[in-house]
């Protein structure tokens, strides 16, 4: 049986958002400063908005907001140049 969950993938500099667990509870967010798992998978080291840093093993109430990273941009440009 296949799982309906999708695998999270992130890079340092991406934003991690945790939905509130109860009605009225605000979202929390932080910057992913380190990816411990292979190929962008959890766990992540996150710097929260209050400055605390923690290791997070995300659950289903978490999503990643991806940002363009300079090293990814350079790799894409090089790939396009090579392909013509």
Please supply descriptive tags for the structure shown above.
5-stranded antiparallel beta sheet; disordered N terminus; 5 strands; alpha+beta; 84 residues; 17% helix
Give your account of this protein's structure.
This protein has 84 residues and is an alpha+beta fold. It has one domain (15-83). The protein has one helix and five strands, in the order βββββα. Strands 4-3-2-1-5 form a five-stranded antiparallel β-sheet, with no helix packed on it. Strand 3 and strand 4 form a beta hairpin. The radius of gyration is 15 Å and the shape is globular. 10% of the residues are buried. Residues 1-5 have low confidence and may be disordered.
What is the helix fraction of residues, given as a range? Answer: 10-25%
Oligomer kind = single chain
Shape verdict: globular
Number of domains: 1
Spatial order of the strands forming the largest sheet: 4-3-2-1-5
Helix-strand category: alpha+beta
Number of DSSP E strands: 5
| Terminal CA distance | 42 Å
Q: What share of the residues does DSSP label as strand, in percent?
A: 25-35%
Biggest sheet details: 5 strands, antiparallel
Mean pLDDT score: 80
Return Rg in Å: 15 Å
The sequence of SSEs as H and E is EEEEEH
Counted by DSSP, the helix tally is 1
Low-confidence stretches: 1-5
